[in-house]
Amino acid sequence: MRSANADIFNHDTEAADYDRDVLNESDPVRAGYREILGWVIQQAQITPTLRVLELGSGTGNLSALIVSCRELVSVDVSGKMEAVAKFKLRHLAHRRFIKADILEVFRQGLGQFDAVISTYAVHHLTDHEKHQLFELVFACLSPGGRAVFGDLMVLNGSEKEEKIQQYLAKGDQATAQAISEEFFWLLDTAIGDLERLGFQVSTARFSELSYGLVAQKLNLRGNAGPHCDRRHRFLSSSIARYQVWRRRSARLLLDLAGRIRSLCTRSQALETLNRFGNP
Ligand SMILES: C[S@@+](CC[C@H](N)C(=O)[O-])C[C@H]1O[C@@H](n2cnc3c(N)ncnc32)[C@H](O)[C@@H]1O
Predict the structure, then answer these.
(1) Among the atoms of ligand 1, which is closest to the Cα of residue 5?
(2) pLDDT by residue (tens digit) across 160-180?
(3) pLDDT of residue 204
């Protein structure tokens, strides 16, 4: 399940100029860049004992702000962005880079993480792919762990249309085009998806087009954080895996019912689905 546009948004051709481009915060797409990176690291509460996953690590500007962690796994499709990153991240002794798509990489059995961080990468996934990513992130996070994102976001579909018109009216064709073509997060949809999975969500706004979002995975005792006992971790991660399996099975069932109408009507399938839990 590689994301549909991974090759289009691979930043190999932008790598040489990327760090200079992000300094231009007068560009509405870059506004708040430095501040958002600092906020993501602060909210992720990374300590020397935590295992961290970064999605869409680019030229390493986000991870460069981590003082120390037990292990950092960085994922990006662009080998050229990574070539810039590795010089900035020499202080992180236990760092591993995986050149892969941020959906597909979860097939590699990465294990559990205490924190997942990502800036300006998830908006390259379609809305459906974002939903898939949230499920994968939920399943790989330890109980009490946090996923912290900083990215290009709008509140909902109607705000997206308004913003496109506003930038067109200002003569800023490039920003209007970015909003319409690059799958900026729709915050209300994303928050709903994350909360249904069992995350507690909070957000902060950084510019006209950028927000930060913290998704904290609750555990059975509430928010004990990443240092709860092992039995507890095991129980919560089993429940999380079961929930993902249950949602997938329910969707499969609904799909099957649509295909084999003579054997099982949609309403029968929905009834069964309700017994299994709603996807
Ligand atoms: C706008 S840059 C952000 C880089 C860095 N996180 C930052 O904040 O400066 C987006 C990065 O995501 C990577 N990327 C885009 N789509 C991807 C995908 N589907 N899987 C993995 N990496 C992806 C690009 O190669 C690029 O390095």
Answers:
(1) 19
(2) 999 999 999 999 999 999 999
(3) 98
E-assigned strands of 31-127? Answer: 51-55, 71-76, 95-99, 113-119
pLDDT tens digits, one per residue of 183-196: 999 999 999 999 99
Q: What is the pLDDT of residues 213-234, one digit of tens each?
A: 999 998 756 654 544 444 545 5
Asked whether the beta carbons of 85 and 58 are under 8 A apart, the reply is yes
**Residue ranges of the domains in the chain?**
6-228, 240-276
Tell which atom from ligand 1 comes closest to the C-alpha of 150: 8
The CATH architecture annotation of domain 6-228 reads 3-Layer(aba) Sandwich (3.40)
Q: Which distant-in-sequence residues (6+ apart) come within 8 Å of 129 by Cβ?
A: 3, 4, 103
pTM attached to this predicted model: 0.81
Torsion of CA 19, 23, 27, 33, to 10 degrees: 90
Q: Which of 1, 5, 7, 11 to mutate to test the pocket of ligand 1 (most atoms within 8 A of CB)?
A: 11
- Helices and strands in the chain, H and E counts: 10, 8
Residues with CB under 6 A from ligand 1: 3, 6, 9-11, 56-58, 61-62, 75-78, 81, 101-102, 119-121, 124
